[in-house]
Amino acid sequence: MATTAELFEEPFVADEYIERLVWRTPGGGSRGGSEAFDPKRLLEEFVNHIQELQIMDERIQRKVEKLEQQCQKEAKEFAKKVQELQKSNQIKEAADIIQKLHLIAQELPFDRFSDVKSKIASKYHDLECQLIQEFTSAQRRGEISRMREVAAVLLHFKGYSHCVDVYIKQCQEGAYLRNDIFEDAAILCQRVNKQVGDIFSNPETVLAKLIQNVFEIKLQSFVKDQLEECRKSDAEQYLKNLYDLYTRTTNLSSKLMEFNLGTDKQTFLTKLIKSIFISYLENYIEVETGYLKSRSAMILQRYYDSKNHQKRSIGTGGIQDLKERIRQRTNLPLGPSIDTHGETFLSQEVVVNLLQETKQAFERCHRLSDPSDLPRNAFRIFTILVEFLCIEHIDYALETGLAGIPSSDSRNANLYFLDVVQQANTIFHLFDKQFNDHLMPLISSSPKLSECLQKKKEIIEQMEMKLDTGIDRTLNCMIGQMKHILAAEQKKTDFKPEDENNVLIQYTNACVKVCAYVRKQVEKIKNSMDGKNVDTVLMEFGVRFHRLIYEHLQQYSYSCMGGMLAICDVAEYRKCAKDFKIPLVLQLFDTLHALCNLLVVAPDNLKQVCSGEQLANLDKNILHSFVQLRADYRSARLARHFS
User: Fold this and answer.
1) Which of 184, 197, 529, 625 lies at a CB distance of 3.0 to 4.6 Å from 534, suitable for a disulfide?
2) What 3 state SS string does 477-518 have?
3) Number of other CB atoms surrounding residue 563 within 10 Å
4) CB atoms within 10 A of CB 599
């Protein structure tokens, strides 16, 4: 076949073609050449060559047919495209003409040209509808270029806005398939933002209209469905839904701020959000405070019910209340105290629940309040916290705790008020933390700041006064218990034994029991308080402890051996005083220990001891009062040495 193809030359001449074939065939030449002419061989070559030519002809024919078919197809497509372009141009031309006619018709008087004007208006309307239909079809086919062409033509028609509406409507078909309408809306707007500039000459206006449509129709309907169902039946769920929906809507708005929506997109988006939530935000704070009050009351009531406790009325003005208030401020026995059975009526779980509810209310208030109303709304929430946490719970526990403190002369009294102090301190810290972390940011730049700080100060001062009263009366009870121990355990013969030579003990039984009791109370005070309050209370307790022992020792007469035993007792009390870690208390017991030396020192050394470092600055009457306690004080020799 390749050899056959080589025999063709341009221009083709049949005789020359045969001549070239003959010469190329061995034995085909009639002159020259080394081989003789062989007609059979030449005939055979002709037959084979003719077959090859037939095969070649068939192949070429098939190729020609294929090329003809392809050419016909391309010709049809080209003709169709030309036709479409022509049609497209006729639309543009027709649109241009009808647009001009429409403008001219506006100037013609109606009475003379009503028929003409009517026909122009009809044609204008028909053409406008055709263009919108063409745009709709192109959008469904995804033909951006065709959409752009039609939109450009419609730009000068009244129906251009309808074209935009069609685009916006079809953009949203199938856009909300997930469970998250806000995420769907964000994805939709991102997709449209990428293509709208390729279609419309005013893409920012079209995108803004899409967003407005999404907010005012889709989101507004969704929000209404979510809120109206629980608005009247479930305040807790309503507030949670409102906060969640408003937050997700503002988050969506933040994402949309990335797009070009015109000059003032912040105001535009804010108005859209307001249009959705305005009816819910107008009375938000009333719902919030109403729910918070009922929820807080329920938390407290559930706690007191669990304790099987019926709350007492505090401060109603009756005789019993008057007695209680007098007893709280004095140690007068105006009747039996209330037995709380060791219950403090303070619950950290209750406090955490109240603070958690208030924290959520502050968060909702921050998100849902108008900036101008925020400080005032936050203050209302704060007052509810004060009412239920500080007054109804803490203050009630303090009043009850005060009423439960026994009188100072009660025997074997159980002192639970320090447990109240401990828990109250913990609660104060939690209360103060929420005040600083969640309330302060909402009111820091408003006049409500000073009002909140003043209210907080008043509440804390009121409670500190009750705590101080309770601690003072508790310390009195402790001293009262120690008095009972000393009265029961200390005997006169302890310091004036009948047999001076048969005293084996190092300190008295009364001293042992008092020291054990004091150490227990010191530990309890340390566990119940924090910071400087520990030192303040321990110092007061230590001073009263010293006064008790001082006055107690003044009741007895001391022999020489009894004086030694008193010194041992005071040494033990001084060890106990070291646990206080208060310098003043230790100094008082050091001085008391030095005074006790006056009970045993030889008469000749009394003046020397009294002028010593620890006793030199004491009043002479104090020194004299201790010397008078000696059993040998009446002796002329002792009186002479001390005078």
Assistant:
1) 529
2) HHHHHHHHHHHHHCCHHHHCCCCCCCCCCCCCHHHHHHHHHH
3) 24
4) 26
CA 416 to the chain's CA centroid: 37
Side chain identity at 520, as an amino acid letter? K
| Cα four-point dihedral sign 275, 278, 280, 285 | positive
Answer yes or no: are the C-beta atoms of 359 and 434 closer than 8 Å: yes
Cα 573 to Cα 507: distance, rounded to the nearest angstrom: 10
Q: Is the dihedral of CA 174, 177, 181, 185 positive or negative?
A: negative
Looking at residue 136, its pLDDT comes to 85
Q: How far apart are CA 525 and CA 522, in angstroms?
A: 5
- Of 95-109, 137-151, 247-261, where does mean pLDDT reach its minimum? 95-109
- The predicted pLDDT at position 96 comes to 56
The one-letter code for the residue type at 251 is N
3-state SS assignment for residue 558:
strand
Nearest to 575 by CA among 614, 518, 639: 518
**348 CB burial (10 A radius; 0-12, 13-18, 19+):** exposed
Q: Which two three-digit tokens encode residue 597? A: 């030396």
What is the C-alpha radius of gyration for the chain, rounded to an integer number of angstroms? 54
pLDDT tens-digit readout, 353-362: 999 999 999 9
Contact 385, 438 (CB under 8 A): no
Q: Is 336 exposed, middle or buried (0-12, 13-18, 19+ CB in 10 A)?
A: exposed
CA distances from 523 to 238, 383, 517, 518, 527 (A): 50, 37, 10, 9, 6
**CA–CA separation, 393 and 403 (whole Å):** 15
Query: pLDDT-derived band of residue 471, with 50, 70 and 90 as boundaries?
Result: very high
Average confidence (pLDDT) over 243-270: 91
Token digits of residue 519: 């150490």
Band of the pLDDT at 142, cuts 50, 70, 90? confident
Residue 260 and residue 268: Cα distance in Å, rounded?
Answer: 12
For 439-457, letters b (16+ CB in 10 Å) and e give beebbeebebbebbeeebe
- Is-contact 120 110, C-beta < 8 A? no
Banded model confidence at residue 123, pLDDT cuts 50, 70, 90: low
Sign of CA dihedral 308, 314, 316, 319: positive
DSSP state of 157: S
Structure token pair of residue 26: 């061995």
Residue 515 in contact with residue 573, Cβ under 8 Å?
yes
Supply 453's token pair.
């700080």
For residues 418-426, give the mean pLDDT.
91
Q: What is the Cα–Cα distance from 237 to 291, expressed in whole angstroms?
A: 11
**Token code pair at residue 631:** 């059993």
E strand or H helix at 166, and its extent? Answer: helix 160-171
* CA 546 vs CA 112, 276, 411, 552, 577: distances in Å: 122, 73, 21, 10, 9
| 247 CB burial (10 A radius; 0-12, 13-18, 19+) | middle
Q: Compute the distance between CA of residue 572 and CA of residue 183 in angstroms, rounded to an integer.
A: 77
Higher pLDDT, 443 or 107: 443
